[in-house]
Structures are given as C-alpha cells and as structure tokens.
UniProtKB/TrEMBL annotation:
PANTHER family: NADP-SPECIFIC GLUTAMATE DEHYDROGENASE 1-RELATED. Substrate binds at residues 105, 126, 129, 180, 393. It holds the Pfam family ELFV_dehydrog_N. This is Glutamate dehydrogenase. The active site is at residue 141. The record marks 181 as: Important for catalysis. The keyword Nucleus does not apply. The keyword Cytoplasm does not apply. Residues 218-459 form the Glutamate/phenylalanine/leucine/valine/L-tryptophan dehydrogenase C-terminal domain. Belongs to the Glu/Leu/Phe/Val dehydrogenases family.
Amino acid sequence: MTITLKKTKQTEVQTAKNYVDHVYETIKKRDPHEVEFHQAVEEIFESLVLVFAKYPELIGKGLLERLVEPERVITFRVSWVDDQGKTQVNRGFRVQFNSAIGPYKGGLRFHPSVNTSVAKFLGFEQIFKNSLTGQQIGGGKGGSDFDPKGKSDGEVMRFTQSFMTELSKHIGSDVDVPAGDIGVGAREIGYLFGQYKRMHGKFEPGVLTGKGLEYGGSLVRPQATGYGVIYFVEEMLKDKGLSLKGQTVVVSGSGNVSTYAIEKATELGAKVVACSDSNGYIYDESGLNLDTIIQLKEIDRARISEYVIEHPTAKYVEGCSDIWSLPCDIALPCATQNEIDGSAAKSLVLGGVKAVGEGANMPSSQEAIDIFLKNGILFGPGKAANAGGVAVSSLEMAQNKSGVSWTFEEVDRKLHEIMEDIFQRCLTASEEYGHPGNLVIGANIAAFNKVSKAMLAQGVI
C-alpha cells in the first residue's frame, strides 16, 4: 500500500514514516518470532503514517511505543484430566492490551494454533475494533492451545474449569470481560461462568459475555458478528448505489459467524452458494440450505461434507483454499487468519467479485488486500466489518449493569445503527486523510484517533 497525503509537506511524511518504521523495527527485534503480531502491526502502522505526517507534534508523545506494548501479558498452565484418567497440560493466555477507553474486552480462542503471537495479534486488533464501535471498551484477547474438537463434554468442562480457575484472578466486570471466539461457544462460556461463580461466591453476570439468555445473556449475541458483517457490506454497496439483492455470495467457514452471515444475506435477497469447514467446502449452485448446515454443524457436530447426503445436487470439494476460485459477487472470509492470499485474491477478482467483507480476524494477507484495493474492489477490513460481535457484547454488558433485558428487535436495531456508524466513521476518515473509499486506512485512523486522544488525556501510563 502506497501512502501519500495531499497538502502535507513531503518532509513531514518522511519524518512520520521514519518514526513509524523505527517503532516497527523495534517490535520485530524485541519479539522476532511473533509473525502474526508483526503482520497486524504493520498493516495498521502503514495507515498511521498519515496521522503523524498531519500532526507531527504527536511523534514525541510515545503513542505508538505504548500502543504496541500490552499493558499485561498473562501466561499460565492449564492441567486437566481426560476421560481415561490421564493428566493433560495446555497453555492459557490473556493479553490485556489497552484500557484507555474502557475495561479490556475481547474473546477467548481455544485452538491448537493459539500462542503468544496469535493472542497479541488478536488483542492488538481488538483495540481498534472496539474503538470503532463507539462503546467504552478497551482491547484484550486470550485463549488456549486446547482443541475442543473430538473432546467429550466432560473433558471440555474439566478443561474450562481449570482454565477459569487461573483466569478468574485477572478478570472482572470493570477490569476485563472475556467472551467467546473460535472453539469457545455457548457450552464453553457456560462452563467458564459456572466456575467463576463457584470461585467468587457471587452471581456477577458482567464478567463474561456471550452467556445464555437464562443467566444474563443478550438476544442477538449469537447472530451479532454474522449479521454485522452483512450490515457493513450492505453499507459499502449502498454507498455505490448497489444492494445485496440478487448478489451471489461465497462464505468461508460454517461456524457461528458464517451461519448467521448466510442467514442475513439470504434474508436480504442474496444467494449464498458455498461455505466450508477445515476439511473442505460445499458448493450448491441453487443456494445453500441453511437448516441443513445448522443441523450438521451446531446439532450433530458433523463435517460439512455430509451436506451432499441431504442435497445430492450439491458438490463437496476436499480442501478449503479453492473456495475462492468460485465466481461470486461478494466474498465473506469468516474462517481464520490469512485464508485469502495473493493467489486467492487474484482468483476472486477474475471471478467478478465486487465486495469483500472480513468476518474473521485478519483473514486476508497484505498482498491480498493490496490486490483488492488496486482493482477497485470494495473491501471491509475485519476490525470494522466484524465488529458487530463485540458491539453486542458491550450491549450485553449494559443490560447486565442495568438489570434490563432488551428485545431482539431493539438489540438488532442498535447493532444495525452501530455498523452504519462504523462505516461512516471509516469513510469520513478515509476522505479526511486523502484516500476516499479506502476503508482500511479509514478504519485504522478513525480507531487510532479515539484511543490516542484518551491516552494523551490520561498522561503517561
């Protein structure tokens, strides 16, 4: 991505770039193996050159140096006993990154890929995502390298109870409020909440979000990220005089985000023809049957390949990467980081894609993003497009504090308004800094400006 700023002296641009590059090189030298974290920082830093070029007086404030260093990184052992009576050991993580605008807020991910670098990349992104929502929530993230796949309910319960035994020392409704992420759904949140309640001897609903409705959860929370992605894509299209109606959509993943993105896109008149899991993808030219997908993935916990048993005219393809070779108008990467590389991005462009909305965190490589922007593809970066989940988590926190539960329609309306506002914030910032329509730059700058003002107001902390 080439950064320029009209009406700004080239010397100021170079000074800003030198500062940003220096901080980035320091990060890489300090933690050379944290490649996911480096990628997240580099993508955001490229945009922030524009801010420091426009306001060079900020360079001496140490904003970036403080922003990239977590306020706290917690790593702990999680010992638990499997169904065979054997002791297993996993690692737990919680990165409390930035609390300038509110308590740390971000999900827990249970997946074998989780390490310090992944937790830091997710936490760093969360600072910006949470800022964009307009809610009073800071950035944090965590999880474990535990894999819930193939584990019994008893094993998952014993692991999550052990995990929360340590995590509970570091969280609270006004301190750090975790939620779910990959591998952490309603079942896991329930077990985590139960263990926290047992240890603290009180019912404190605001300590976790994504809870069941029976014990302080919010309506629309399961749907929020998927719905939010569609609402954001809808705004991108609307800005260009287009709509979702009649568009062909390809979605990666088949979990919570993907499922509800499919539901909302279909409701708004689009035709979703493909989705995937970690083994492969299904393609149904007539449009996916959402009821079958929900039955397979949420109830039977089966593989997506079994879709073709119920729908023999559909096609199953082993392996996930080729899903982006399918022609489509809208692509929604909702699975995991870096699932769209340069080659996949080129395939999407050749296939006629008009818009890409990131439902996952950092699912597109920098090369892929550059290809989309160069070819005029509408691109909604994850920190903006998938902020609906944490936005409704914040609404869940508000309901817990007030003791009032809002209706589905009320929460959905608030979510829609938040996503519209996020789009406008990104668009306005992109225009103000000389890159109209570049929502990557717009999202990064709009989010940074809010957080940096809060940091400056609070002094050197």
